[in-house]
Amino acid sequence: GTPSYPVTRMCVVLGAVWCATHNTIKRLDPVTHTVQDITTLNADPRKSIICMELSGLGLWIVQQGSAVVHLYNIKSRTYLLELNVVTTVTKLLSGCDDIIR
Predict the structure, then answer these.
(1) Which terminus in the chain has less CB density within 10 A, N or C?
(2) What pTM does this model have?
(3) What mean pLDDT do residues 64-82 have?
């Protein structure tokens, strides 16, 4: 990271540490201490990554203030899915009190 864009999330992936810094994911090799850019989320470059969760070969990524969840394949380093959850969340909240919404 940098003073402008510090590391906000870290996740161990295939023996390396993947770090989110603003809207970019970088890979830190713990043996060679080298840093490699993995990917940059271009959906909205003003929004930082606030969550990274590993599940099998998929890395789920969420940006601040975004209703889109990204699924990234850690082996092929390709995006598999962009899932917009607005409709699902709206449907679930429709039966809730105004306080919860």
Answers:
(1) C
(2) 0.80
(3) 92
